[in-house]
Amino acid sequence: MFSGRRAVLALGLFLLAAAATAQEAVLEPLAIATREGRRAFQVEVMRDDASRARGLMFRRSMPPDRGMLFDFEQVAPVAMWMKNTYLPLDMLFIRADGTVARIAADTEPLSTKVVPSGEPVLAVLELNAGTTARLGIRAGDRVEHGMFKRR
User: Fold this and answer.
1) Contact present, 140 and 100 (Cβ < 8 Å)
2) Consecutive sets of 10 residues in the chain, 151 residues long: mean pLDDT of each?
3) What value, to the nearest 5°, has the Cα angle with vertex 128 and ends 19 and 48?
4) Gap between the Cα atoms of 68 and 125, Å rounded
5) In terms of DSSP bridges, do strands 37-46 and 66-76 run parallel, antiparallel, or are they unpaired?
6) Pairing between strand 121-128 and 100-104?
7) 3-state class of 52 per DSSP?
């Protein structure tokens, strides 16, 4: 049985390990071709149910050139939420061919409100809130990453 002091120490070590894991995440290049030019990012890719469920929960910051790409592995309507997510985000719902179907801009942190894709999509890209407006990213722009196939 842990004493109070040991429990606090164990919790602290767990949180440090979790933070280190988040910082050591494997990043992949991704770009978005907009009317104003190509916008480059480094993204973490969530490819399984556990990582998709965790997403950006509990994180307090994300560098401006980073994002998180959720690979749903099949084309279907999807819905996201912001439970336990402290960062306001722009969510880009992406078709299988890489085109942006819809953007949910400046989503509400810590909300359980459902944010729907609006149509069947293959993936969702989360960026810091305001990124799509600042960089001129719009529905119809093309996301360049290995998971998207041109049709």
Assistant:
1) yes
2) 46 45 76 97 93 88 96 96 94 97 97 96 98 98 90 49
3) 55
4) 6
5) parallel
6) unpaired
7) helix
**What is the pTM assigned to this prediction?**
0.82
Please report where in the chains the tokens 């196939």 appear, as a residue: 149
Residue 76 phi/psi, 5-degree rounding, is -165, 160
* Residue 117, number of CB atoms within 10 A of its CB: 22
pLDDT at 52: 87
Write down the pLDDT at residue 5.
52
**How far is it, in rounded angstroms, from Cα 55 to Cα 3?**
33
Radius of gyration for the chain, computed over Cα atoms and rounded to the nearest angstrom = 17
List the structure tokens of 106. 């400046």
How high is the pLDDT of residue 150?
Answer: 60
The strand ranges marked E within the chain are 28-34, 37-46, 66-76, 79-80, 89-94, 100-104, 115-116, 121-128, 142-144
Paired tokens of 51: 């990582």
CA distance 33 to 40: 9
Stated length of the chain: 151
What pLDDT sits at residue 124? Answer: 98
Q: How far apart are CA 25 and CA 92, in angstroms?
A: 21
